[in-house]
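re: ur question from earlier - yeah i can do the single chain one, its not a big deal. heres the input i used so u can compare w yours
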Amino acid sequence: SIQIENGTLQLQGGGTNQGAIVLNTGTTLRLSGGTFTHQAGASMTGEFLLLADGATVNLQAGISSSASLSMSGGSISTMVDQTVSSLAQSGGTLAGSAILTVSGSL
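and the output i got, formated as tokens:
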């Protein structure tokens, strides 16, 4: 498992999350380039920003409903229903077979 206590963790080139990622309030997980898969059974919890910056992000498992999504390129594809607190999109594509609900600002 990974715990991000403060600041930003930037991952480049793709990868797969099969475990737990815990993000403290105000932290950012920035995914740049490549394909990242958050596999079924994995967890991503906390009040954080998930930033897709030119990456392809496949969400096969839920993320925290306190999370915010931001896209500046690439794509986010949801395979399970998701609720997030906010969504900011300046580029890229939202896709997937599931429902994405934004409970706050869009």
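Residues 37 and 80 are 13 Å apart (CA to CA). not sure if urs matches, ping me
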